[in-house]
Each structure stands twice: as C-alpha cells, then as structure tokens.
Amino acid sequence: MKTHVKALVVGGGAVGTGIAYHLAKAGWDTMLLERDELTSGSTWHAAGLLPLFNMSYATTHIHKYSVDFYKSLEAETGLNAGFAVVGNLRMAQTQDRMDEYMLYSSVAETCDVYHEFLTPKEMKERWPLLRTDDLKGALFHPQDGYINPADVTQAMAKGARQHGVTIERKWQVDGYKWTGSEWIVSITKMVEQGGNLVASEETAEIRAEHVVTATGNHAQRTARLLGIKTPAIPVEHQFIVTEPDPMLQEYRKNNPEHPVLRDADAKWYVREERGGWILGPYEKGAPARFEYGVPDSFRADLFPLDLERIEAEYMSMIHRLPSSETVGLKDDFNGPICYTPDGNPLVGPAPGLRNMWLAEGFSFGITAAGGTGYYLAQMMVEGEAEIDMASLDPKRYGNWMTTEYAARKNEECYDHVFILHHPDEEREACRPLRTSPAYDRQKARGAQFGQINGWDRPNYYGPVDAPASFDHDSRSFRRGAWWKYAVEEAKAVRETAGLIDATAFTKHLVRGPGATAFLDWFTCNALPKVGRINLTYALTPTGTTRTEYTIVRNGENDYYLVSAGAWTAYDADYLRKCAEDKAAEFGHIDIHDVTTQWGVFAIAGPKSRDILKEIIKDADPETALSNKRFPWLSARKIELGMCPVNAIRVAYTGELGWELHHPIEMQNYLFDLLEEAGKKHGMKLVGGRAQNWLRQEKSYRAFGTELGRDATPMEAGLDRFIDLSKDFQGKQAMIDTGVRFKCVTVLIDGPSDTDPWGKEALLKDGKKVGRLTSGGYSVAFGKQIGMGYVSPDLAAVGTKLKVRMLRQEWDVEVVEDSPFDPSNERIRVNG
Length: 831
Ligand SMILES: Cc1cc2nc3c(=O)[nH]c(=O)nc-3n(C[C@H](O)[C@H](O)[C@H](O)COP(=O)(O)OP(=O)(O)OC[C@H]3O[C@@H](n4cnc5c(N)ncnc54)[C@H](O)[C@@H]3O)c2cc1C
What we know:
The protein has 831 residues and is α+β, with helices and mostly antiparallel strands. 26% of the residues lie in helices and 29% in strands. The strands form six sheets. Strands 1, 2, 6, 7, 8, 9, 15 and 16 form an eight-stranded mixed beta sheet that branches. The protein has an eight-stranded mixed beta sheet with strand order 4-5-3-11-12-13-10-14. It has a six-stranded mixed beta sheet with strand order 26-27-28-25-19-29. The mean pLDDT is 97.
C-alpha cells in the first residue's frame, strides 16, 4: 500500500468517490480509504433521484454539474451508471406553491437550468394515470431523473482509478496527527467477524499533505477524532416499493416511463420501479440517529419500516395515482440519511485545522457527489472554486452548536424538505437559543425574530398582541403581511430615528506588537488612525472577498474588528490562521473573539443626535456629538447615563447614526434609557428587513450576497476602499483577475405586490446578462430596488435592463452607486 500521497480521501460513498475522481483529474496523487466496501454507507440504499430543483445558487450549480457529469461517465469509463433521464415533475396544489416555482424559475435561469411550466390539462394529457383536477400546475425538468447510486459510484471509482487514484477497502481511519506540513493518518485493517466488521491487529500509517473526510453517517466519530464539532447527524428516511400496478403496466406498453413525480404539498416523491411504484415521503416525526456514533453492528443495514408514520403520505399517493390503491407492498427501505440544520452539506476547510477538508452531512449526496467533487477539487487545487462556497462552509456553525441542537434541527430540516420555501421563512426548532438581553423587551414590543448563526434577532416589529402564528402566516413569495411594518420602520429611519439591535455582530480584538503590520497586509484599505475607523476587506489569496470588516483603531497596536453576525466562526478561523502564518514575520498577534461580551445597538436617523444628547453624560453634552468632537467615521468612548459605550459614528442605513457597543450586562439598562429618550422624537424599533432595504438605497454591499469568494472587491465596485499603494494579501491576484463583471444598484418598476428577493436573472433583449444578489423595496424611491452583477459594459448608470419576476419581464435601470443621498450629506450633518 502507498504510504505517502498528496491527498487522502476518507470514505468510499458517492461523495468521497466523486471527490477522489476530481482531485486525480486535476493532477493530484490521490488515495481513497474505505472501512468497508464502496457504497456500503448510505449510498447503497438511496433512491437515486437527481433533482435539479434547489433554491440556492451554489447548490444548484453543484447539482447541475452532477447531472451533466453523470451523463458523460459511461463514455469515459465504459460503465453504465443506470441514468434514467425520465424528467422530474413537481406538482403544485396551491397558488403559493406556483409562486414558489416562479421564484425557483429565477434561480434556475441564473444557473442555466432548463425547466418548463405545465398546466393540469397538459399533465393529464401526458400522464393520464395522474389525478390533476385539484392541481394548479407543475414545474417540469425534462433533463434529470434517477440513477443507480451504486453504479454511479462504481463508475466514478473506475474513472478515479483511470486517473491514478488508489482505492483501498477495509481500512478504517482511526486517528489524525498534523505535523506542521502533512497529516499522519493511522489506519486499521477491518475484518469480517460473524457478519460484523471489526478492527484487526493490523495497522498502518499514511502520510498525506491534504485530507478530505467524506464519512457519511460516521461524521460524529470523524469530528471526535479531529477534535472539532459538526452538526452532521443522520435522520431516518424510508421509502417503500409497491407490487406491479396493472394499470401502469398497461400504460407503459405504448408510453415512456413516468417522470419522477413530486407532490410537494403532500410531501413525497414517487417513481416507477419494475412496473410498480417507489414512494419516498418526507414525513413528520422521523428521528435522528447515531448522535454519538454508528454502532459496530450497523453496516449496510436498515432500520425497521414505520408504516404508521408515513400513512398520510401513502394515502395521498393513492389520491394522486388512483391506480396504486389496489397494489400491495413489495419492499421497504428505512436508512440513515445525513442532515445538517439548514439542509446544506458541510464542504470546505475544517475549523482550526490545516489542509483538512470536510465533505460531510449530505442529504442529497447522490445528486451532489459529482458537483461537490468538482468544486471542492477547485478549492483545494486552485485555491478557490468558481462559485462562492461560503453557504456550504463547515464553519457556518460555531462552537455554540451542540449535539442536541443539531439532532433536533436536523429532524426539523428533514420534515421541512417539502414545505414552501419562502425566502422569509424562519424555522422554529431550538429557539430561542442565543438571545441578546433585550430579547424579552423586544418581544413585548412586537418583535418577530429570525434566527441567524443561532441568534434570535428582530426581523420586524409586528402588532404587540399578535397571535403566535403571526409570522408564519405572514410569509409569502410576494409581499407578506410583515411588509407594511418594515415599510414603517424604514420610513422612521429616514424621517426620525430607528433603533436596531446588532448585538450578533462578530467582534474581534486584534492586538500585540505584530497587529498593525498584520492587519495592513490582511486587509485592502489603509488602516485608520488611532480613534478613527474604516471599512475594509480581507481577501482570499486568489483575490476575492473573504470578509468585510469595520476596523476601529483603539491604539497604536490595538484594533477592534466588526464583521457580519452570521459568520463568526468562519471569520475567526481565517483571521487566526492568517495571523498564525504571519506572526514570525510581523511579531506576536493576539486575537480575542469578544462577540458575546459586547452588545450593539445601532441608532440611526435625523433625530438620532438629539436623542443621544438627552442621555449623554459629558462636560458639554451639546457639542459631544458634533462633527468637531465626534466626526463621521470616528470612534469615541462615551457615557450614556451610567452605561460606558464605545460609540462608532457609522450607520449601515445611510443616515446620521452611531453604533453603540456596550457591555452586554448593561444592555437592558441602555435599552430602557434609549427607548425613553427616543419617545418624544418618534424613534421606532427597527428590524433586519427594513435595514436590508435601506442599505440597498446606499449601495452598501452585504456579505453572502454581493460579497463572496466568487468576486474581487474591484468587481464588487469597492475601489474606494482599496489602497493600491500598499501590499496586501490577494492584491496581485485581484489585479490579474481584472473586472469580469461589476456590482450595480438598480431600481425596478416591478409588480405591485412583489419585490425581488435577490435571486432573479437580469436580462437584455430576452437574454440573461446578470443576476440580482439582493432585492427589496425602497421607501425613498417608492419602488423596488436591488443589487447584483452584470457584465462591465452594462454597468453604466442609465443602462436599461429587465428582470424576470413572476415569469414576466419588468423594467430595470442601473442607477448611480448610493442612489439615496449620494454625497452622504445626511450622514455628515452637523449638530
Ligand atoms: C432511503 C434513502 C433514500 C435516499 N435517496 C436519495 C436520492 O434519491 N437522491 C440523493 O441524492 N440522495 C438520496 N439519499 C441520500 C444519500 O444516500 C446520501 O446523501 C449519500 O449516500 C451520502 O453519500 P456519502 O458518500 O456522503 O456517505 P456514505 O454513502 O454513507 O459513505 C460514507 C462512507 O465512509 C465510510 N467511512 C466512514 N468512516 C470511515 C473511516 N473512519 N475510515 C474509512 N471509511 C470510513 C463508510 O463506511 C461509508 O462507506 C437517500 C438516503 C436514504 C436513507
């Protein structure tokens, strides 16, 4: 056996095999280890469906790559992976579901995924066994279907071997040790004993520069071996196979196979199987399994069928396919299917570790295997993938995450596979968990919360006496019932003042002798002078945007970094790793994550200074907040009543305003003080939805939408925050990349009841020329607003484009950056 390789992939399911194939194809010397047989994890019992339908831009790219790649495998390997391109029909029982498909259609258009809409009549004509009288319509993907999971894995394995991969079966990885330049991986030969797979005495070590773990249901054991946390925990998933259906057999004499059928409102998929049907429900009550590891006795095994749990879905299949009523059950499968709390797999660098890559938590692993292999190999070999993989990054869950949280959230996620995926959806399980102290006060004032990175943050303030179901019932693909509250909040910020809880912001202290030199290299803007702040970006080595920071300089070598609340562990990991790498060059750098020690309220609006003046304690309260004593983009320590506050004069909403960073234990005191002072000035409590609209009026880019690892800061239009006179990480790569596309702000004359969600395609002469990454409603302009990317020749102010919403084209105009108050007069106003 080889003992030295460039890359070691652990796990021979569909995912590990797809990764090994692509790493080898990219030229890396790769080995794959499997503790049992290839496909003996979840892969062997998958139904093999390859749905293209997905609301996420990154995941849609991954799935699309797989579908195309699997079609090419036979020519490359000579092995037929059993890809039945029967298409995939997603039915809709309600208008809301049709709205969902129309929004999906936008995502599909941005990713070039072909799809059609069908009416009930068209469906009935093509598939007469279907009951369609109670349907509104359907979405049809003619190009996907289902595949044999074991065969496609074997085909990828053969392709991998052809590219030079060594595949070793019956070797289990039992330990990982990082030497500083490579991993020493301890492995044990596994042997059969009475049907069980047990460890033998034979052990060995493999040295690998890079390791990828793709260990499926064993992810919790892998995490323990690595000393990290991961929320990848399986949930039970069952499907049943019926006896042959005589009416189906008759129909098939003259007709092709049915597409994979999905009655999303009934929560199931159905496909043909040897003259009968396979029914796969996503029912309520499926339990999490293997929270603490997979027992040795569980190999390619299944759980007992729980027919009662899927009775409702079974009955609804009979309703939709009446011919299935008389056929009996032939077979059943109830296997573990790995999940994560948001349903996305964990793909990318492991937290805290070097050259250790995770590919865990796949619930659609057959569909995702090829694409994951392709994009992960790009990340490993070239430094970054061509799409932003942040939404799949393992570090989107922080250290606050526990087994109990992951298990309960994963059960919820399974149950939610077929719910309406409203973009304003908020899920209920495990909440509230992380709250700022003012949570109860905000709730009492009508706050409707959304969860991000475990934190509950006000999305908007609804009626104080709202029933518990208010937010749920408010959701829509158009303007939900919450919309009018967000409008009032946005107006308050523009006209009087608003108070926003931004406690979840990620906060780091960076100090020590090497801090200044390090941050100067780590970020692209000039560092602020002591007492000042700036907005800046950390780049990837390939020149794209990794993190947006507000940097406050408290002293010569003393900095306070603020970044997005959703990305604490993601930002912390990169910051620490880069600082470690540079400590020898720049001197000692101390990094502290102080996120949970400091609360943040952002007060913004023309009255914000007057409100603060009432409560500031200062020798001269009248001038304490004036431009002279507290200029825009500066930081001061102030006292509000008895609360010491590190105030920063910035406002993400584009109004006069301050961020008030305060000791978390004084938050309620400060909240009461501000609320009381704000009363006579008409201050309103404001949630995240209004803030998101307001920042678009100022063209403020947001991380995860406009900003990510697929665009450079120059492409994001952030030239004024890039100091080209200095050297910084990613600078040359950014320059070499040039400007492939450009971030623009647009105003839209859209439909009267719908705003864009930031998922829509931008069109010119009917052709896709870009996509929106953010969208919403502008109170300042009284119409829809959005931000997105187009080719540079279409980025000029005044360019007329179209956006497709609700399957119609609407007028779009590219406007100047910061269309509202472009010269920042409102922010700089003196007083
Ligand atoms: C009933 C059912 C139906 C499904 N239907 C579909 C479907 O239609 N479409 C779809 O896309 N997905 C489907 N899935 C999900 C799909 O099965 C999984 O997402 C996919 O198989 C995951 O592949 P994987 O390679 O990540 O994990 P696995 O297939 O579980 O492979 C992980 C491998 O790692 C090995 N391993 C673990 N630890 C070690 C170690 N320490 N050393 C060496 N080897 C190790 C294991 O032995 C295993 O072979 C279904 C799942 C179920 C349960």
